[in-house]
Amino acid sequence: MNNDTSTQIRLARRPEGWPTPDDFTVATVTLDEPAPGEVRVANAFVSVDPYMRGRMNDVRSYVPPYALGDVIAGGAIGRVVASASDALPVGTVVLHQHGWSDVVQADASTFRAVAELPGVPLSVRLHILGMTGLTAYVGLTAIARLQPGDTVFVSGAAGAVGTAVGQIAKLLGAGRVIGSAGSAEKAALLTAKYGYDAALDYKDAPVREQLATLAPEGVDVFFDNVGGDHLEAALDVMNTGGRIALCGAIAGYNSTEKSPGPDNMANMITRGLSATGFTLGSYLHLSPEFTERMTGWFAEGRIAYDETIVDGIENTVEAFLAMMRGANTGKMLVRIPEA
């Protein structure tokens, strides 16, 4: 990799329905020497995430949409290779949100230095020890107010957030944790590796039928990454006073038509349920608390994780599309070879 140039993945047009490679373009730009206060970072890993699909639409959301022609912004981690800032000398490992490029150059204030952990890959800072883990923690604690003994149902449980949710729920005292996944292999992994007490393959039979069988005493907390039929199934079995943390709705991200709402919303009233949507921006004050607890659990060997790795910045779009199709187990990442 030549650190004097930057290969960037940009949004060429707004997708209609499922994105295709033609919705993106690849540009290579030559970088000038860093101006005072700037640093140049060679990325080691770039993140691809479901929320990015929403930002490709020109609609109101919790963050502005991507502009046409701009680099796809998102999480990445790398190492400073050139610096005109005393705050971030060459060799410093940094997190940032500059997204889909192999090399990025910008003001030092847009990067955050992080410590390297012996024997731990840098990539974990982009998931279980980073925003992914924090999302799971916030959803369970601040949003769903998990109580010891609660029964928890998690949709999209084999993804990056879902695998974190199951483990954190058990560590916080959940009595029973049930997850959904998109294959028998993923469902088996949830119970074998991630602490789930039971798991269903949503392709086997209607979620509504399977969840009722797995949760005969009902569900107290539903952590939703999917929406659609999973939300409907959860509403069927929620216990009185149940809490729903709405983290994502990937079932509808690529739909070109509006999906009908659940047919059992009246359960929200009759059972006194609460459903709260959330994004991390309003809960970053919980980051120190999460970091302290997660670092301890991780050091004790109580946290497992999976990564699905695609090599090469030129394959970022392929990785994103594969993640949207559910091809990943755990966190989907693009790895960028060192120069």
Question: How would you sum up this structure, described in words?
Answer:
The structure is a single chain. The chain contains nine helices and 15 strands. It has 339 residues and is an alpha/beta fold. The protein folds into two domains: 152 residues, Medium-chain alcohol dehydrogenases, catalytic domain (Quinone Oxidoreductase, Chain A, domain 1), CATH 3.90.180; 152 residues, 3-Layer(aba) Sandwich (Rossmann fold), CATH 3.40.50. The strands form three sheets. Strands 3, 4, 5, 6, 7, 14 and 15 form a seven-stranded mixed sheet that branches. Strands 10-9-8-11-12-13 form a six-stranded parallel sheet, with helices on both faces. The chain has a two-stranded antiparallel sheet with strand order 1-2. Strand 11, helix 6 and strand 12 form a beta-alpha-beta unit. It is globular. The model has no long low-confidence stretch (mean pLDDT 94). It comes from Microbacterium oleivorans. This is NADP-dependent oxidoreductase. Keywords: Oxidoreductase.
What fraction strand? 25-35%
Looking at the overall shape, the CATH architecture of the largest domain is Alpha-Beta Complex
CATH homologous superfamily caption of the largest domain: Medium-chain alcohol dehydrogenases, catalytic domain
The largest pleated sheet is described as: 7 strands, mixed
Strand and helix order: EEEHEEEEHEHEHEHEHEHEHEHE
List the domain count as a whole number.
2
CATH class of the largest domain: Alpha Beta
What is the alpha-carbon Rg in Å? 20 Å
Poorly predicted runs are none
Question: What is the overall number of helices?
Answer: 9
Look at the structure and give the mean pLDDT: 94
| Helix-strand category | alpha/beta
Please name the CATH topology of the largest domain.
Quinone Oxidoreductase, Chain A, domain 1
Number of strands: 15
Helix content, binned percent: 10-25%
N- and C-termini, Cα separation: 4 Å
Overall outline: globular
